[in-house]
């Protein structure tokens, strides 16, 4: 019987190996096509920006990629850009930590009782609908021109996204599942750690990824209004001085910081939660 089964097993293993190799080749080919397409689009945009945009927009009001790259190099050589990047990232990181902790804590506290969530939800939605740019001057009046108003603004933007997604994930747990677990003797702690938290984990992971960029946006928003350091201050100062090259250089650095942070978080999400699609609210 062993002699009869072994060839079949070997053939099955060979078929599976060939299928896996074909899948890897297709995946590599698809990645290569995507990278090539992205590079082609990026090169087209840069070429049009360098040689064509000046014919559509007054060259006084728009810089070109070569000049911007040179200005970024100058700022980097002077060390100024690294100082501003460090300030903005520090403010965003502090706001992200505070907003995430408060969002998770309040979501778990309110979503455990549907009546409590229903009572507070209209107020949270109303406060979230307020334009954040209108709050920035108030935060500066209340907390001064230091890092505090930037951290508060970043935390505010993070809080609502984390809260809404965490509360949604908790509330989507089927009541019947919770009831069955209680019948089987699960304690409140067991329900929280073994049922509710795993069910809400995908939404929490996705909201963490998107709120990192929101935290950077919050810090930049306050820096644009009033600040003495940070990337937002760099862009605002250059704009007041009509230094177009520095304005675009700051914007490019901001985009690079946000894209780098988002790429790192996507990588971590793919490793820690590969089953999740990444859809979030807010």
Automatic annotation (TrEMBL):
Superkingdom classification of source: Bacteria
Describe the location of the ABC transmembrane type-1 domain by residue ranges: 85-265
Kindly state a single biological-process term from the GO annotations of this entry: transmembrane transport
- Report the Gene3D superfamilies cross-referenced here: MetI-like
Q: Does the keyword Chloroplast apply?
A: no
Q: Which PROSITE patterns match?
A: ABC_TM1
Q: Which GO terms describe its cellular component?
A: plasma membrane
Membrane-spanning residues where? 32-51, 92-111, 123-145, 151-170, 191-212, 244-265
Among Pfam families, the record links this protein to: BPD_transp_1
* Principal subcellular localization: membrane
- Cellular compartments annotated: Cell membrane
SUPFAM superfamilies in the record: MetI-like
Q: Which UniProt keywords apply?
A: Cell membrane, Membrane, Transmembrane, Transmembrane helix, Transport
Membrane topology summary:
Multi-pass membrane protein
InterPro entries in the record: MetI-like, MetI-like_sf
Protein family according to the UniProt entry = Belongs to the binding-protein-dependent transport system permease family.
- Protein's recorded name: NitT/TauT family transport system permease protein
Species of origin reads Pseudonocardia hierapolitana
